[in-house]
Amino acid sequence: MFHNRPKPPSYLDNFLHPCYDKKKIRNRYRERFRPGEEHPVKIYTIKDIAQKAGVSVTTVSRVLNKRPDVNPATREKVERVMAECHFTGNANARGLKQSDGTTVAIILRGRENPFLNTLAEAVLRYTHGLEASFLVEYVDERADEFQTAVRLSHEKRVSGCIFLGGRIDERAHVLQHIDMPMVFATISAENADLPKAGSVFIDNRTMGRRAMQTLIDAGHEKIAIFGGDHQGVDGFAQRYLGAMEALEAAGIPFDEERYVDTRFSLRGAYDTARGFFAMKPDTTAVFAMSDTVAMGVIRALQDTGRRVPEDVSVVGYDGIEMGKYFIPRLTTVVQPIDDIARESVAMLMDMIEQGAEPRHITVDAELIIRESVGSAG
């Protein structure tokens, strides 16, 4: 019955004269017979499965690649649809990946930030098996990551980008002029007037308030803040506002000379802290807006004869692995790296592949108390 079955399009392509419209001929072969069946059966693609299951192509890809980051109920639904459609996925997924020219840029601001490097590694883990290629673009901490995105867009090199770290300020207006989906990881873009931008972030205002409250509860009043520019709408600004709310609620005035704009590197924080404590030696506590900064500050304190936490208490931010083993072990706000990475990749791929609208997702953070905070003397 099947010995006269037509050859597949890939075979015909080798013999058809160039005058034939190969696309039309391929479409004729979209239907084929299965042994034992009298009606033609559609050859389903990964996009068909996603549509039937009511999920994104990214989710189907994760199920195919047996990724653990899929809700069990969702996995069961996708697998049921694949079984009904006799879809195995391997050849289909490979074909789609080869034909899809989608490239995504991961733009990382600052090479010396362990938190952002760990986040970049997590993002890349969640890209395995997706129908897109990913490239990492590093920009200097003081450079303009938005101009990098504009350049990549104009060169037609990427279909979307994920920003890791950085800040949203007046420079971001250039992004309004490029038609490319974007996701800000760790920074809220909800009020940034960027219609193509989504974001995944923690509640920085709440966590900034909790970090400062930890120092207040320990009896500290002469508290310094080491951070970045707090005049924008990004995470640094929100952490600063939260810290100010905690001080105001406690009736503690804040000396603006104790706000220190520092580079987010060990060396930058170390040098800045040595200069600051020479001018403000009566400071008894520091809220550092990153763990890297906190560690640079602690080393500067130790090298100038001050003990942590006996003389000066320090709270960090980010929750990098090194903080668990630092001396003293660092009290810090822990950002959920896996959650941020997973949601950022899923959102961007939904925007690129499904035309989904950008969203703004808040993920939960945690304050971990360790050894770097003590009672005010």
Fold and architecture overview:
The chain is α/β, with parallel strands linked by helices. It is 39% helix and 16% strand. It has helices at 9-12, 22-28, 46-53, 57-64, 72-84, 90-99, 114-125, 145-154, 204-217, 235-249, 266-279, 291-303, 337-354, and strands spanning 31-32, 41-42, 103-109, 133-139, 160-164, 182-185, 197-201, 223-227, 259-261, 285-288, 313-318, 331-334, 360-362, 366-368. It has a 6-stranded parallel beta sheet, with helices on both faces. α9 (204-217) packs parallel to α10 (235-249). The longest helix has 18 residues, at 337-354. The protein is elongated, with a radius of gyration of 26 Å.
Record keyword descriptors for this entry.
13 helices, Rossmann fold, 6-stranded mixed β-sheet, 377 residues, 14 strands, 434 Repressor (Amino-terminal Domain), disordered N terminus, 3 domains, single chain, alpha/beta
Task: Please describe the topology of this protein.
Layout: H1 9-12, H2 22-28, E1 31-32, E2 41-42, H3 46-53, H4 57-64, H5 72-84, H6 90-99, E3 103-109, H7 114-125, E4 133-139, H8 145-154, E5 160-164, E6 182-185, E7 197-201, H9 204-217, E8 223-227, H10 235-249, E9 259-261, H11 266-279, E10 285-288, H12 291-303, E11 313-318, E12 331-334, H13 337-354, E13 360-362, E14 366-368
Parallel strand pairs: 3-4, 3-5, 5-6, 6-7, 7-13, 8-9, 8-10, 10-11, 11-12
Antiparallel strand pairs: 1-2, 12-14
Quick structural overview:
With 377 residues, this protein is an alpha/beta fold. The protein has helices at 9-12, 22-28, 46-53, 57-64, 72-84, 90-99, 114-125, 145-154, 204-217, 235-249, 266-279, 291-303, 337-354; strands spanning 31-32, 41-42, 103-109, 133-139, 160-164, 182-185, 197-201, 223-227, 259-261, 285-288, 313-318, 331-334, 360-362, 366-368.
